[in-house]
Write a structure and sequence with these properties.
The chain is 44% helix and 19% strand. The chain is an alpha/beta fold. It folds into two domains: 180 residues, Bordetella uptake gene, domain 1 (D-Maltodextrin-Binding Protein, domain 2, 3-Layer(aba) Sandwich), CATH 3.40.190; 116 residues, Periplasmic binding protein-like II (D-Maltodextrin-Binding Protein, domain 2). The strands form two sheets. The chain has a six-stranded mixed beta sheet, with helices on both faces.
Length: 331
C-alpha cells in the first residue's frame, strides 16, 4: 500500500507521525545536560539566583543545569549565543531587561532580534534601585532634593554604570517625570566604584543596586531617598518608594531577570520548563535569598504569554525614553 501513496499522501503520514512523537520527546526532556547562559559575570545576583534554581531543576529532571557566565557587550554576547543555539531546550538564556527591552533601541546593530529569536519561559524577579547619597548629604528628603535641583538646574550629579543601562535610565525617567535637570556621570560598568565615589562626595547621587546599598545604609554610610519599586522593600521598611515621595504611585524603574529558550523550541518543552520553574521558585530558601539581596520575587513568575506582554510594555517605556534622550542607535 505504501507504494501506492502519492508524494502528498506520504508527506501527510510523516507529519502525522511527527505530531504523535513530539509530545513523547517533550516528556523525555531533558535528554542531555542543559546549559544556562547567564548574561553577566559570576557572583552577581543574577548568577546567584540562577545557580540556586538550577540546582533544584537538576534534581527535578535528573540532568545537570550548567551555568555558563558570558558577560560583556551589555549582555549581547550571551544573547547571540542562545539565539543561534539548537531550539530544543538544552541551551537557555538568563538575561536582564537590557537584553530583552533596551538594547534593540540603543545599539545600532544587533546580531540577534530579542523579539523574534527567543521564547520566554519565566520572568521571575525584579531589581529595583535605591536612590542614595552620602550620609552627610545636605538634603533631608527627596522633596528637598527636588527643590534644590529646580533651584540650580544641572548642579546636582548622579552616577550610573553607563549610558543606556538601567541605573542611568532610572535617573532619566525620574528627571522626565519631575521636569528637573541632574547631570549624569557614567561609570564604565562599575556600580561599586560609583557608590564609592558617592560616599566620598565626588558625585551626589546614584541609583544603586540594593544588594550593595543595603549594607552601607545599615552601617550609616549612605542616605536613602527612595526606591524605584512600586512597593517598599522589606529590608528597608522606612524608605519610601519614589512613587510615594513624589505622589506618583505608578512610577517604577526596575530591571528584571527572565529565562528564555531559542525561538522555535517546542511549546511542550517550554511549558514543561515553565511549570517546573513555577514550583521551584516557591522554595522558601530561594525566595528568602532573593529578598535578602533587596530584590523582588515575581510571584508567581510570569509565564510565556504574560512575559511577552510585560516585555512589550517595558520596551515601549524605555524606547520612548531613549528617543527623548536622542540615544536611539547611539552604541
Amino acid at each position: 500500500m505504501l507504494g501506492t501513496l502519492t508524494k502528498a499522501g506520504f508527506a501527510a503520514v510523516i507529519l502525522a507521525a511527527a505530531a504523535v512523537l513530539s509530545p513523547l520527546k517533550a516528556q523525555d526532556y531533558p535528554t542531555e545536560n542543559v546549559t544556562v547562559i547567564v548574561a553577566l559575570g559570576a557572583g552577581g545576583s543574577m548568577d546567584v539566583i540562577t545557580r540556586l534554581y538550577g540546582e533544584k531543576l537538576a534534581e527535578r529532571f535528573g540532568k545537570p543545569f550548567i551555568v555558563d557566565n558570558r558577560g560583556g557587550a551589555a549582555g549581547n554576547l550571551a544573547a547571540e549565543a542562545v539565539a543561534r543555539a539548537k531550539p530544543d531546550g538544552h541551551t537557555l538564556l538568563v538575561a536582564s531587561s537590557g537584553v530583552y527591552a533596551i538594547n534593540k533601541m540603543y545599539f545600532k546593530t544587533l546580531r540577534f532580534d530579542p523579539d523574534q529569536d527567543f521564547e520566554p519561559i519565566a520572568l521571575y524577579v525584579k531589581i529595583p534601585f535605591v536612590l542614595v547619597a552620602r550620609a552627610g548629604s545636605p538634603w533631608p528628603s527627596l522633596p528637598d532634593l527636588i527643590k534644590a535641583a529646580k533651584a540650580e538646574p544641572g548642579r546636582i550629579t548622579f552616577a550610573s554604570t553607563g549610558v543606556g543601562l538601567a541605573p542611568h535610565l532610572a535617573g532619566e525617567l525620574l528627571k522626565a517625570k519631575l521636569d528637573i535637570d541632574l547631570t549624569h556621570v557614567p561609570y564604565k560598568g562599575s556600580m561599586a566604584q560609583a557608590i564609592s565615589d558617592v560616599m566620598a562626595g565626588h558625585v551626589d547621587l546614584v541609583f544603586a543596586d540594593p544588594s550593595l546599598a543595603i549594607p552601607l545604609l545599615k552601617d550609616g554610610r549612605l542616605k536613602a531617598f527612595g526606591t524605584t519599586a512600586t512597593e517598599r522593600l522589606p529590608q528597608l521598611p522606612d524608605v519610601p518608594t519614589i512613587g510615594e515621595a513624589i505622589k506618583a504611585p505608578d512610577f517604577e524603574a526596575v530591571s528584571w531577570h527572565m529565562i528564555a529558550a531559542p525561538a522555535k523550541t517546542p511549546k511542550a518543552v517550554v511549558d514543561k520548563l515553565q511549570a517546573a520553574l513555577q514550583e521551584t521558585l516557591k522554595d522558601p530558601v530561594i525566595v528568602d535569598r532573593i529578598k535578602s539581596m533587596g530584590l523582588v520575587p515575581v510571584s508567581p513568575p510570569l509565564g510565556p504569554a504574560a512575559a511577552k506582554v510585560y516585555v512589550a510594555a517595558e520596551s515601549e517605556k524605555w524606547g520612548a525614553l531613549l528617543k527623548r534622550l536622542d540615544l536611539v542607535g547611539k552604541q
